[in-house]
Amino acid sequence: MTGATAIMALFLALTHLYIRLLSPALDAPRSPWLSLAGGAATAYVFVHIFPDLCAGQEAVRRAGWTVLPALDHHVFLVALAGLLVFYGLERAAILARGGRDAPPAGPEKSGVFWLHLTSFGLYNFLIGYLLDNREVPGPVSLVTYTVAMALHMAGTDHSLRRHFTGDYHRLGRKVLAGAVLGGWAFGVVFRVHEALLAVLFAFLAGGVVMNTMKDEVPLDGSGNFPAFALGAAGYAVLLLLL
Asked: Which pTM was predicted?
């Protein structure tokens, strides 16, 4: 399986490097393609990742990592933390630009850019690591995970290009592509404890939900609901049939 996961890691890295070539289609006002991709990635979280978190919770309990006995849903709290972290990053980027519809942040906002690059680099490192260390092994799981993460990365790439156009094109996309490959390589060599894997999986789930939904539920109503619903329903059915 290492050869297969290597191919998938390379595919995800190339997504960050070259998805910009599709920018004419993706940059259309609330592109239906981005909404379709966001819906599919969200379906993967709710149909596949969240159910796996229940098993992950048991792993955390067996490891004795529970913080307070009264808190029975630790991994779901980690998922919530992932959502909050990336919500905070999105708000910081919008404030740095001076508003959602303002021009991209300039060099004077390099601190915000580096904060995003570091956070999403770690995020992509985790995505790469999980290619070879998913809760559910096997070729079907690998393909569905890779497709969902590639669709998710298309939306992430579009968002970061919108916030930090020049810096992201020159450096950001290369760092994020390298982070996926680095995470995969680390996962091939090292295995973390099953409880830590459950925690990492939970944080990824919260991040995916936030990073896909932030553009689908804007207050101005510009999200493409039919495309998002089609992507979510279609990929959910596919996951249930596999």
From this structure: 0.81
**Residue 219: its pLDDT value, please?**
47
Query: CA 37 to CA 39: how far, in whole Å?
Result: 5
Q: Provide the residue count of the chain.
A: 242
Does 136 have pLDDT greater than 80? no
Whether 183 shows a pLDDT value over 80: the answer reads yes
